[in-house]
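new request in #modeling-help
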Amino acid sequence: MRVDKKELDKKKLINLVTQGEAKNTKHILHMPEVREGLRRILGNEDGDALFQALDRVSKAADKMDWAIPPQERGRHMMQGGDAFGGAFDVEWE
Amino acid sequence: MKKFDKFNEEIDVRGNLGIPGQPSRKPGEPDYLSDVTARAKQRLGVRGGNPMQYVGELMQNLQVSQQLSRGHERELAELATQIITDLYKPIIDHYKIKLDIQFSTGRDIRRMIDAGYARTEHKKKGEELTPVVRARGVDFSMLIHEAVKGIWTVISMGAVPKGELGKAIERSFDLSDEPEEWMYGPEIAADLRDFVNESPLVDKYPNLREELWKHMVDVETMPTQEFLDLMRGILAKTPEARKKVDKLLEEVSKKLDKRAQIDADLRRYEIEMEKYKRDLAEWEKKYGHLEQTPAPAAAKDSGPDYSKMSDKELQGLLDKALDEGDYDLASKIASFMQ
């Protein structure tokens, strides 16, 4: 079944906004609630170290997104890289 | 390499009718994709050079984060769940979203993806089920990232037409589309957020942006062409889009007021029912030994088929039931609403 381009453009925008909201929400790492939470769980020193590491991962990932052509990364992902950083699904119970 | 069953090849952000300047610029329109590319690269400090430096930096810090998290995965997942719940509380409460957020290994996540890429089951109308967002990640940030994607996926559930067309649309996208979404997605989402945040209503209603988005993408509330025109206007910051978004925010906020009233009424009803049950139990304790006349069998429910009604029809019936104080019926009708 061929799909009307407008429907695909709409779905693409939904995917873009969903992905964008998820990436932008990662900035909450800097919220006091998160930093205090990390310290409470790991102790002050390790909590701060984890915050720093997560922040660096996030910034490096953002740079990679613009520095490596998306076609190249897409090809790599489809070829079945061994490991992925995350995934989600939605089920009904 | 694209999926074998992918029907529509290369769904590129370029040429998207909802993006200003695509496929060609209208008079006065910005070249949105070029502008956000320059903006993002400058903000992130991306200059030429070997991109592998960023890969190395990421891997090194990921290793550090995983070492530090080891043994604390459950508590960190609970923290992520708490943060997401606080951030999306009205949405989570209203749509009865259950969060299942856990650490996982990269290999297990790969298996999860292979089992069904970003699998999303759609609820059949009338089914009394609640959505469960399962988010898995190798570190704390990824748990947040995937949980937010899950919540926005639930919000956007009404966006795809039902049946074969909907399935064909879903099959048109796969993993290979994601890298482009990582680039432009944050810029588009930020511009949408900033545009909506200009309205004073956002201070009064938490998650108003998400509710507006639901209204914009739902096939029952906005036709596809109107959605694309509106997105194009929002991203180009046109006065027409401003006017339209302000009007929609008014409508959505009125709907939220009504929803809050319904929720309050239903809560009051639940409290009254609890009290009634306690009184009844008390009464039975006192007089239960007396012979009871069996209650007449309830008449067989031959009421309307709510599962076949639109949300608009259901809303009308719900309002009527609430006006009449029939909270049992209101609760039943509410369960059929999307």
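bot summary: Chain B has two domains: 32-240, 242-285+305-334.
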